Write the C-alpha cells for this entry.
Amino acid sequence: MHLTRFRLNTVRSGARRLLSSPQAMHAAVMSSFPDVLPSDTDTPRVLWRVDRNAKAEVFLYMVSPAEPDLTHMVEQAGWPTQPKWQTYDYTPFLSRLTKGDTWAFRLTANPVHSIRRKADEPTKLTAHVTPRHQMGWLLQRQEAAGFRVMEKAPEQRRLPEGDEYQLVVHDRRGRTFDKSERESRGKKTVSLVTATFDGRLEVTDPKALRRTLTTGLGRAKAYGCGLMTLAPVG
C-alpha cells in the first residue's frame, strides 16, 4: 500500500474545477492508476480525501494499492516547476500498528442512516446533518473499525453532556454535483453531506484498523469520503 500527498495550486482553474466537483476529482484520481479499477468489495482500494487547511494550503491525500502517477494533475492543478508529489510506502507503518497505541486521526466521511417515515414505506438512506448525530455515527462504528475514540478527563469537559470525547466535527458540507461526465448521457445529480472528524484514538484491534485504513469507513468513497489517516499524538 502507498500513501500519497499532493498540494493543489488553488489559483489555477484546473484546481478550482477539481475542487468544485467530487466527480471530476474522482476521475482525476483514478486516472493516476491505469491498472486499478474502482471496487466496492472489502479489499484494499483507492481512497482519497481533500484537506483544506487554509485558502492557499489544500492537499489531496490518497491511499492506494499501487503507486500513482500524478503527472496529469501537476499539469492542470499543480506547480510544474516545484516538487511534484510525495508517495510513501504505507505497508511498514500499517504492520507496526499495535493494540493500545494512541494516535491523532482525521477522517472525512458521509454519515448516513436508514429511516422509514411510515410503517409501510421502504427505508431510505438519509444524511446526518448535526454535529451530535455525525459524532454518534462515528462512535457507533469505532469498535468494528478497530479503535475507540479517547474520552476527555472530567476536568477537561466544558459541558455536562455531549463533550465526553477527544473529537471535533468540522468542515461540514452539503454538496450537489453532476455525476455524468458527458452531456450526451444526460444529467444525474448526486447530493452528498460530508463531515470531517479530528480526534484521538486508541487501537483496540490492529487487524481491523488496518482494514479501515485501506478500505475506508462509510459510504461515498468514490467522492472523497472514508479515508482515515493517523498522526503521532502531539
Notes: The longest strand covers residues 189-203. The chain has a mean pLDDT of 90. The longest helix spans residues 131-145. The radius of gyration is 19 Å.
